[in-house]
């Protein structure tokens, strides 16, 4: 009985909020280039390593508290990486020295810490750029410019991989395969998978003559990018079919019938045929960089929606433009874009970039926590895979130890990629696992879970667990406890009626008596503190029966 009562103390019953989606991608780009988002502390000693790790943990804790679920973690920067790779060297931002090991594996650490918090980690790879002259010089003999110069072109003062050279697709795919095979990632995210700005002037005449086969130049360039995307997608899926492969194309795909892109779009300017990628099923999701206002945003968001082909479209919102030193946007611009993306049925939101989110620029984090991300949300299932949910867990157990509720269950049969579990709670039975407000934790890899209540944590009377496979398919819920004849009546801010001759006994959450009264409406506000109260009725013959509970 006390198990049920303790849980009641922490039910959020007093908020009247709009319905919020249970399935929604809530992502942030976490930039490691130059330590812009992380790390600000360089790892050159054991103390530095711990400080660097602590800084990332603090950011992940803040994102979990704000009910984010996806981290786009910059893993390949400019011809360098943040993990030990056989293809490219360590990035300067980790230690302050290009090529120097930070003394630990930042990618492995980030994955483990994300999964502890129910966050997906997608490795963000900057694909075509290699770096400016300084960056390439620092990379030295470890740079692809030195190791495979035939793959590289210098353009407008920087170096790039040449999309027209078939070796570029091979090279980038090997990096993606290395990451996928070695790490328990949730996604590969391709950034700058395109030609540079002023791409029509890209110096690829020799490559075109060798590989163009008299194809029209612009279409050849689009096909080059599509070929790279297809190669990476296919190779990653062969290794781990549950790993999501996505990209961040330019926010305007092309001119629409009524709205011009004013010369800056994915299709014509930088040769990204991203809607074709969706039609051909060589992307699981697109995160278009829709860093625009007004009618530079809304018509193009609709265009993405109308051409999503059952895959995910998650608009990237340019919250960095809120900053007074950028474009000093009003917060209302981003709020309208979130409302609109939900209204038309897009699959979530992503924010560029993480520092501006966690700095609460113009109050953006407050807006999300208070109005849009009040409850947790989960990444939707990859429904185009036509997969099956895992088997339901079995053998439920739920007991109270002190002020903690300990739950356990028997694991569902193992599947490729593994299984994790979601915990739900509600004050009604059976627990409705379709409601976002009933989500307690979106991921635990264990078959045991301990709920430690506090005044900021929602609990419940009834608890349930589901199993989830790596494609996001969820089993039927297993009830961890069920109603009994002894379950109390729940009074929300009110008190039970007292029959003639009876006395109401009021106790706290521990069962300690704090008041006896026949006038609860008068005495309780004056003589007890606010919080959880347990009621019992003392009959004239001395018998005591449980009368209910309240959060007062």
Account of the 3D structure:
- This protein is of the alpha/beta class.
- The chain has 16 helices and 26 strands.
- The protein has a nine-stranded parallel sheet with strand order 12-11-10-9-5-2-1-14-13.
- Strand 20 (about 460-470) and strand 21 form a beta hairpin.
- Helix 2 runs parallel beside helix 4 and helix 7 (about 165-180) packs parallel to helix 9.
- The longest helix is centred in the middle third of the chain and has 23 residues, at about 215-240.
Question: Which terms summarize this structure?
Answer:
28% helix; 552 residues; alpha/beta; five-stranded mixed beta sheet; 23% strand; nine-stranded parallel beta sheet
**Overall helicity:** 25-40%
Mean pLDDT: 92
Q: Which secondary-structure class do the elements indicate?
A: alpha/beta
- Biggest sheet features: 9 strands, parallel
How many beta-strand segments?
A: 26
Shape: elongated
Share in β-strands:
15-25%
The largest sheet has its strands arranged as 12-11-10-9-5-2-1-14-13
Low-confidence parts, pLDDT < 50 over ≥5 residues? 1-17
Number of helices: 16
- Termini separation (Å)? 20 Å
Radius of gyration, rounded?
Answer: 28 Å
In short:
The protein has 552 residues and is α/β, with parallel strands linked by helices. The protein is built from 16 helices and 26 strands.
Ordered list of secondary-structure elements with their pairings:
Elements: H1 2-8, E1 25-30, H2 46-65, E2 70-76, E3 80-81, E4 89-90, H3 92-95, H4 106-116, E5 120-126, E6 129-132, H5 133-139, H6 144-147, E7 152-155, E8 158-161, H7 166-182, E9 187-191, H8 205-211, H9 217-239, E10 244-247, H10 266-269, H11 274-279, E11 285-286, H12 298-306, E12 312-313, E13 316-317, H13 331-343, E14 348-351, H14 354-358, H15 364-372, E15 394-401, E16 404-410, E17 419-426, E18 439-444, E19 448-451, E20 462-469, E21 478-479, E22 490-491, E23 503-507, E24 513-517, H16 520-527, E25 532-538, E26 544-551
Parallel strand pairs: 1-2, 1-14, 2-5, 3-4, 5-9, 9-10, 10-11, 11-12, 13-14, 22-26
Antiparallel strand pairs: 6-8, 7-8, 15-16, 16-19, 17-18, 17-20, 20-21, 23-24, 23-25, 25-26
Helix pairs in contact: 2-4, 7-9
């Amino acid at each position: 009985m006390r198990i049920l009562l303790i849980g009641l103390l922490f039910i959020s019953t007093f908020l009247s909020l709009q319905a919020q989606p249970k399935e929604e991608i809530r992502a942030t780009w976490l930039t490691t280039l130059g330590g812009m988002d992380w790390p600000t502390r360089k790892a050159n000693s054991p103390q530095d390593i711990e400080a660097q790790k602590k800084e990332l943990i603090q950011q992940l804790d803040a994102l979990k508290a704000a009910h984010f679920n996806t981290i786009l973690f910059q893993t390949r920067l400019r011809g360098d990486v943040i993990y030990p790779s056989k293809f490219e060297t360590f990035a300067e931002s980790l230690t302050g020295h290009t090529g120097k090991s930070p003394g630990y594996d930042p990618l492995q650490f980030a994955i483990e810490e994300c999964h502890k918090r129910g966050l997906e980690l997608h490795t963000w790879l900057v694909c075509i750029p290699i770096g400016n002259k300084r960056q390439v010089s620092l990379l030295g003999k470890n740079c692809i410019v030195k190791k495979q110069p035939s793959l590289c072109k210098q353009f407008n003062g920087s170096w790039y991989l040449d999309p027209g050279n078939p070796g570029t697709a091979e090279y980038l795919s090997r990096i993606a395969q290395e990451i996928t095979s070695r790490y328990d990632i949730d996604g590969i995210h391709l950034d700058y998978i395109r030609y540079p700005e002023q791409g029509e002037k890209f110096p690829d005449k020799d490559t075109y003559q060798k590989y163009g086969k008299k194809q029209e130049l612009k279409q050849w360039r689009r096909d080059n990018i599509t070929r790279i995307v297809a190669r990476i997608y296919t190779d990653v899926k062969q290794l781990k079919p549950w790993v999501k492969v996505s990209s961040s194309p330019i926010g305007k795909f092309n001119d629409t019938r009524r709205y011009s892109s004013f010369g800056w779009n994915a299709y014509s300017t930088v040769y990204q045929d991203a809607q074709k990628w969706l039609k051909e099923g060589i992307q699981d999701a697109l995160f278009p960089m829709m860093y625009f206002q007004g009618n530079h945003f809304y018509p193009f968001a609709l265009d993405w929606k109308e051409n999503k082909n059952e895959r995910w479209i998650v608009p990237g919102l340019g919250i960095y433009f809120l900053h007074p030193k950028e474009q000093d946007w009003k917060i209302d611009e981003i709020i309208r874009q979130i409302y609109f993306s939900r209204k038309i049925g897009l699959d979530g939101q992503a924010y560029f970039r993480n520092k501006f989110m966690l700095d609460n620029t113009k109050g953006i984090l407050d807006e999300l926590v208070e109005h849009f991300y009040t409850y947790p949300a989960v990444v939707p299932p990859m429904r185009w895979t036509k997969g099956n949910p895992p088997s339901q867990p079995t053998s439920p157990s739920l007991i109270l130890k002190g002020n903690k509720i300990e739950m356990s269950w028997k694991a569902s049969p193992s599947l490729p990629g593994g299984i994790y579990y979601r915990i739900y709670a509600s004050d009604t039975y059976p627990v409705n696992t379709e409601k976002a407000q009933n989500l307690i934790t979106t991921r635990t890899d264990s078959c045991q879970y301990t709920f430690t209540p506090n005044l900021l944590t929602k609990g419940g009377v009834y608890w349930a667990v589901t199993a989830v496979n790596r494609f996001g398919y969820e089993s039927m819920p297993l009830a961890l406890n069920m109603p009994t004849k002894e379950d109390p009546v729940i009074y929300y801010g009110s008190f039970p009626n007292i029959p003639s001759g009876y006395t109401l006994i009021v106790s706290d959450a521990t069962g300690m008596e704090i008041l006896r009264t026949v006038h609860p409406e008068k005495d309780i506000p004056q003589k007890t503190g606010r919080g959880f109260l347990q009621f019992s009725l003392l009959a004239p013959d001395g018998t005591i029966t449980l009368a209910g509970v309240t959060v007062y």
